[in-house]
Design brief:
The protein has 359 residues and is an alpha/beta fold. It contains 15 helices and 11 strands. The N terminus is likely disordered.
Length: 359
């Protein structure tokens, strides 16, 4: 029979006897978490917030293209370079100019043409009659951000003038090597639909680009906003009139690079990157896979992506988010795969889907 509950306000009603509490077992000792995982993801970081502000400033001049902006940020922080691909009129050059203004870096632009010579990019020795000697006249490559506009319109001889600059951040002229300013980034543009009068970039140069960023045509809402801004007087030649201001500088870039170097990357994540790179070399759809340099650059980019996301460790999602922009320009599709209707993006999607993800 069920007894009524004890009323503590009635003194004549005896309280029901309480069962003695069982002794609690002492909690099992837990292993201390890794130091890199203890910091909360939302911890404020003024350096990271400054680079988050770069996106806001660029948005004052460029509508959409968020993925391209993120790619340029990561490339700058990883000492990498970017290849911007898109049809004319999608703001490739405007994006780079806005980016340079937001990070307070000097930029120069070279229009690559069939008659451009290597010395027009790197600089050359010029005879000084007053000193009866040759002196070096620096080329436009001696800057922080070099805009190599329509890089595929110049012959390989001139394209190769950038190889040493992109890899070693120096230029050798007249038997002497000269260091380039730091930070240094090459932002090259090319048109993917026009092949007449162009020279495909050699694989050795493509491999030196950290990312290939594809700028698509804007969506309807974004295109309306572009036209609306121009109707209200936006001038792409005067970025200051758009209210764009510098929110980072070379000193902050150096501090960000130091922070990114401390981002923890587990051996399982390194193995995941290795497996992705090796899968590109083993798939029958690709004639050329990713080189070890490409895998190394992806590792560094994943660290920067984790840092920008507010984490102190790399996850598989960081690697996946950068896979296409890191790998698509480093592989070559076999003709048989092209005849079957495949493209590089589909092959990479298949590789990512079938490569075991660490838990």
């Amino acid at each position: 029979m069920t007894q009524p509950p004890h009323d503590p306000t009635n003194p004549q009603e005896p309280a029901a006897p309480q069962a003695s509490a069982a002794p609690q077992a002492s909690p099992a000792p837990q292993e201390p978490a890794a130091e890199t995982l203890q910091t909360p993801a939302a911890e404020p970081d003024p350096v990271r917030e400054a680079f988050t502000g770069v996106r806001t400033e660029i948005a004052k001049a460029v509508v959409g293209q968020d993925q391209a902006v993120t790619g340029m940020l990561i490339a700058l922080l990883c000492r990498g370079h970017v290849l911007l691909e898109g049809v004319p009129g999608v703001a490739k050059t405007l994006l780079v100019r806005s980016f340079a203004a937001a990070v307070s870096l000097e930029s120069s632009r070279v229009q690559f043409t069939p008659d451009l010579m290597p010395s027009d990019v790197t600089g050359s020795l010029v005879y000084d009659a007053s000193a009866s000697d040759f002196s070096f006249r620096p080329g436009p490559v001696f800057t922080n951000i070099l805009i190599a506009d329509e890089i595929n319109r110049t012959p390989p001889k001139t394209q190769s003038a950038l190889l040493e600059a992109m890899e070693e951040h120096q230029v050798s002229v007249g038997g002497r090597s000269r260091k380039l300013p730091e930070p240094f980034l090459v932002a090259a543009t090319q048109n993917p639909v026009e092949y007449e009068g162009t020279y495909p970039l050699p694989e050795a140069q493509l491999d030196r680009f950290l990312f290939k960023l594809v700028l698509d045509l804007p969506e309807r809402d974004h295109e309306f906003e572009i036209l609306d801004r121009h109707a209200r007087g936006f001038d792409a030649g005067a970025l200051s009139s758009a209210g764009l201001r510098p929110v980072a500088d070379a000193e902050l870039i150096g501090r960000a690079r130091e922070a990114i170097a401390k981002i923890y990357i587990a051996p399982q994540i390194i193995t995941y990157i290795v497996d992705l790179a090796r899968a590109t070399r083993q798939t029958p759809s690709l004639a050329l896979g990713v080189s070890p340099r490409g895998a190394t650059r992806m590792l560094g980019a994943a660290r920067a992506h984790a840092w920008l996301s507010g984490r102190h460790y790399v996850t598989p999602d960081d690697v996946k988010a950068l896979a296409h922009m890191s790998l698509s320009h480093r592989v070559i599709l076999r003709p048989e795969a092209q005849m079957d209707g495949l493209d590089v993006g589909q092959v990479l999607d298949s590789i990512i889907a079938t490569t075991e993800v660490p838990r």
